[in-house]
From TrEMBL:
Compositional bias segments (type: Low complexity): 31-53
Similarity comment: family membership: Belongs to the bacterial solute-binding protein 1 family.
Signal peptide: 1-20
Keyword tags: Signal, Transport
Region (Disordered): 27-54
Top-level taxon of the source organism: Bacteria
Pfam families referenced in this protein's UniProt entry, alphabetically: SBP_bac_1
Stated name of the protein: Extracellular solute-binding protein
Length: 442
């Protein structure tokens, strides 16, 4: 039986390996993890649907290594609040999870008690459920009355709940230096043409228009993730349902826009060798006028002290259709092999609470999807100025992938690098994705 299970695990990991990534800024470099733990203080545990025993237990929890800089301080506060509420439950919270560490844990069947998942954004959670790695939380009768059906669906596989629910919205926006824009007579654009005209002015003034981390697989993709719904939202929706194909001209147009930005020097001269930290520094120190990044990075740019502005990219008609995605910063699952499942579910319950969510909002400044969460400031409200929440191109390509052909991986590892180096056109990139896709049959 052990040999049979090991073979199943290896097959599973091989199938989903390409899908293991963080939402927003993923960390794929396998760098060593750092650790943070909360100091418990005495309090009386609250009642719940299934009260765990009062025995002293320790839960091992893995945090998102790729987003440690953003999440470390809020999770110290969240974990301290949790252990104050449940003094018999100690948390060993380590920022230890990235693609590699989760891959190894799945192969060895040595998952921590709790770890973060991406819900229905990829097929990964469903595959883990299928292979018996996650605990079904349905019997715990968690209070999900504050959540919309789409938020519940994020955590649901075959009608059963498997993680704490999302309460924040992720998308990509243009963060810009208001001082540089004003100095060069540029306003927040109302149309795509105005956007491009502003970039031309900045380049003519000797300012890099957009900082791009060309060296980082995920961070160099944010412009395409932003362009795709702006140019081709309807076409991508049709492709996902089998009513259209990725060879639609608007898909090629979105990919070509990315190549054009590289060709025209909008990303600067040395962007191919630039990592994420260098791109952020170029923006925050005024060498670049803007950066296209996720809403999850808002607090980083606020902390720089710059005169910061934000806008969603408008299409040619002036409509702002943005990539939509739920944040996985607080969506955690319980490993089926956990020795303390009841106590682990208390952590899930706490992550579902307004108390924990407000701690994260106050620290990071995400876009809340639940009305009782108070937005951190006016800047957060600016992040939510758009006309329509469109599709996520990565999610669409994931839905069109198979174990033999991963269209999402083809975008990230083949199409985007070739577009950046002018090796292919947008139409050729769309044709490559079309060839990799497996469309649903009607």
């Amino acid at each position: 039986m052990k040999l049979k299970r090991f073979v199943i695990v290896l097959a599973f990991v091989a199938m989903i390996g390409a899908l293991l990534q963080g939402c927003g800024k993923g960390n794929n470099d396998g760098s060593p993890s750092a650790s943070t733990s909360a100091s418990p203080s005495a309090s009386t545990p609250a009642e719940s649907s299934q009260a765990p025993s009062d025995e002293n237990v320790t839960l091992k929890v893995w945090g998102d290594l790729g987003n440690q800089a953003v999440l470390e301080e809020p999770f110290k506060k969240i974990n301290a609040a949790f252990t104050a509420k449940y003094p018999n439950i100690k948390l060993e919270y380590d920022f230890a999870q990235n693609d590699q560490s989760l891959n190894v844990a799945l192969q060895a069947n040595e998952l921590p008690d709790l770890f973060w998942v991406q819900g229905d954004k990829t097929s990964k959670m469903g595959e883990m459920v299928k292979n018996g790695f996650l605990k079904d939380l349905s019997s715990y009768n968690l209070d999900v009355s504050r959540y919309a059906n789409s938020e519940k669906a994020y955590c649901t596989v075959d009608g059963k709940l498997y993680c704490s629910l999302p309460s924040f919205f992720d998308t990509n926006v243009v963060y810009y230096n208001k001082d540089l824009y004003e100095k060069n007579g540029i306003k927040s654009p109302a149309t795509w043409d105005e956007f491009v005209q502003g970039l031309d002015k900045l380049k003519a003034a000797g300012v890099t228009p957009i900082a791009l981390a060309g060296k980082s697989e995920w961070d160099r993709a944010w412009p395409i993730f932003a362009f795709a719904p702006a140019f081709s939202n309807a076409a991508l929706k049709a492709a996902q349902t089998g009513d259209g194909k990725l060879t639609d001209p608007t898909v090629a147009e979105a990919l070509q826009a990315f190549r054009d930005f590289a060709d025209k020097g909008y990303f600067g001269k040395d962007f191919l060798a630039q990592d994420y930290a260098a791109a952020q520094f170029a923006f925050t120190n005024g060498k670049a006028a803007a950066i296209i990044d996720g809403t999850w990075s808002n607090s980083t740019y606020v902390a720089s002290g710059m005169n910061l502005g934000r806008f969603s990219i408008p299409n040619k008609d002036g409509k702002k259709i943005v990539q939509s995605s739920y944040s996985n910063f607080m969506t955690y699952a319980v490993a089926s092999a956990s020795k303390h499942p009841d106590q682990a579910v208390k952590y899930i319950e706490f992550l579902n609470s307004l108390e924990a969510q407000q701690i994260l909002e106050d620290a990071v400044g995400l876009v809340p999807t639940i009305k009782d969460i108070t937005a951190k400031d006016e800047g957060v409200k600016e992040l939510a100025v758009f006309d329509e929440a469109g599709v996520n191109i990565y999610t669409v390509l994931t839905a069109l992938s198979t174990s033999e052909s991963n269209a999402a991986d083809v975008l990230m590892k083949d199409v985007i690098p070739k577009l950046m180096t002018s090796a292919i056109t947008g139409a050729e990139g769309a044709a490559t994705l079309d060839k990799a896709a497996k469309y649903p049959t009607k």
